[in-house]
Write a structure and sequence with these properties.
This protein is of the alpha+beta class. It is 16% helix and 39% strand. A four-stranded antiparallel beta sheet has the order 1-2-3-4, with helices on one face. The radius of gyration is 11 Å and the shape is elongated.
């Protein structure tokens, strides 16, 4: 399913975006864009998502 994100912010290699899930609830997604990292997560609050983005330590160097 194609999800549309708004309010996308890049914090280092990590991007944070706001969108809705399949039930219409607002969710905040975090994903690392570094090759072979694979980190991504979904949060209920924007502050939680931004905290995860700021504290992510990418294992790929």
């Amino acid at each position: 399913m194609l999800r549309r994100f708004r309010n996308v912010v890049r914090l280092g290699p990590v991007e944070v975006g706001t969108g809705t899930d399949l039930h219409g609830r607002e969710k905040h997604t975090v994903a690392c864009t570094a090759p072979r990292c694979g980190f991504s997560a979904e949060y209920d609050t924007r502050s939680g998502a931004e905290l995860a983005a700021r504290t992510h330590r990418c294992p790929v160097h």
